[in-house]
Amino acid sequence: MFKKRLNDKPANGARPAVDHSRIFQKEKVALVAGLHWVPLTRGERSKLFSTARAEGEHSYCITPDGTQIGFFSSKPTGHGKGRGALASLALLLAQNYSHGGEEIFAFHVDARRSCLIVLRDGQPVPGFDVIGSAETVRERINTFLQLTDAGSVRRLGAVDLLGNVEEIDWDLVLDEVTAKVRLKKIPDIRQILVLLAVSAVLFLAVFGAITYKLARDKKIAEEQARIASDPNIVYESKIDGDLTAITGIGQASLRAMIGGLKQIPLQINGWRLNKVECTPALCNASWIRSYGNFAEFGHALPPSAMGQPQYDVFKPDDLTSARLVTQHRLENAEAGHATPPAAPAAPQLTRAALPLPKAVSAKFFSTLQDLSMMDINVKVEPAQLFGGQGDVNQLVRPVLSAAWTIEGPLWTLENIVLEDYVTIDTFTVELDTEKSAANLAPMEKTRYKLSGKYYAKGKDF
User: Fold this and answer.
1) Reading across the β-sheet that carries 102-108, which strands appear in turn?
2) Number of Cβ atoms within 10 Å of the Cβ of 240
């Protein structure tokens, strides 16, 4: 895609003029947006540099993990040297302001320019580093939200571009402008080739030393290949981190989700609760209008609500039957109130504490069998290797996982007990939207669905 974009060379070898429309000033920092991000694989940097220079590009920057490279047509020192040099806004936000996950930053640069930066786990998302008209930015925002779970995206910037958002603290964004976020000049490969030719002459003089080094490097490479081919070494390098990242563990998570559900009323000023879907982080509630308006609804939100409702889930020509979505905190099971931002550390899975499959059968499976006698549908998928691929028998300390679901009437929730090796991914409750506001479906007829996974040792270790 990068080559296609740079396919047409400038006439008479002239380099294109610098696109100043993508540069703007914040305090004393010259920022640039609209970089063209492309994947950077090992050994491809020189090839990308040659292509970029041939097509008139002057500057580049690389993400901290070295997986992407962004190009721009301005000379990196066009706005001065040192603290005056151009800085990539995408890398600056990732370094000083990102919280991880998916994040959208959208704001107005001036009366005719708006800017959009999308990060995923602190990395720029190609195609969503944009500066242009407000209409262009809105179109790219809508495109991204259609490709992801909009409810989990952190939104910062202008209200008219994103709706319910956080404000961008530019003092924090510009707090530390390091060399890692500044654009650098693309090296001239031809000059490098000349230096390589000189190096080749020196190579003849030190051939013996280089031969020794090559032999040593070969031995190191063979050792690295041996390590890479050992499934246990590869598996052990990441399994503990994968287990640490798992959330929604055990009975405490189930109680927190139920507590979050209980804090959401069945109706608010003429709006009926239609569906609640909880994750280990929060609950999303969907509402259908019977009567009332947006303002009355927003003023009567319960204390567990996080921010204002999402107003972009209905069509403007269908206001009478509009739908809204609100986000709610989970309940702190210990304190009996909504979980504050600085909640206690969540429990984590450790391999040593996991049971063997036979213990899972004796406890968790037995519980599921008992539940199936109470108008509850249960399903368990076959167990598979967790945290890797391949044969379990080749691993010394493997971990297994399997997905499960439980569906039943809401009154049976109190009978569900989850062990500390069982996790919950989602807890969903759908209410009867055909009933009027005065005759909401009785709770004993409302059904829920729990889905998650269980984890166990693949061997006795």
Assistant:
1) 123-132, 114-120, 102-108, 154-157
2) 15
Q: What are phi and psi of 447, to 5 degrees?
A: -110, 155
Q: How far, CA to CA in Å, does 303 sit from each of 309, 328, 337, 411, 433? A: 13, 9, 10, 25, 24
Beta-bridge mates of residue 182: 87
Cα gap 19→32, rounded to integer Å: 10
Give the range with max mean pLDDT: 187-196, 201-210, 426-435: 426-435
Cβ burial of 394 (10 Å; 0-12, 13-18, 19+) is: exposed
142 residue type, one letter: N
CA atoms within 13 A of residue 118's CA, in its CB half-sphere: 21
Chain Cα centroid distance, residue 172: 22
- Give the Cα separation of 167 and 156 in Å (integer): 6
* Axis crossing angle, helix 45-54 with helix 189-205, rounded to the nearest 10: 140
223 CB-contact burial (10 Å; exposed 0-12 / middle 13-18 / buried 19+): exposed
Q: Cα 126 to chain center, whole Å?
A: 14
Q: Cβ–Cβ contacts within 10 Å for residue 245, how many? A: 9
The pLDDT value recorded for residue 381 is 94
Would you say the pTM of this structure is higher than 0.90?
no
Residue 181 DSSP class: G
Q: For residues 224, 229, 235 and 237, what is the CA-based torsion angle, rounded to 10 degrees? A: 0
* Cα end-to-end distance, the chain, whole Å: 49
Name the residue type at position 215: A
Q: How far apart are CA 235 and CA 30, in angstroms?
A: 45
pLDDT digits (tens, 9 = 90+) for 413-454: 888 999 999 999 999 999 875 554 444 445 567 899 999 999
Contact 107, 114 (CB under 8 A): yes
Handedness of CA 407, 412, 418, 423 (dihedral sign): positive
Q: Are 74 and 32 in contact (CB under 8 A)?
A: yes
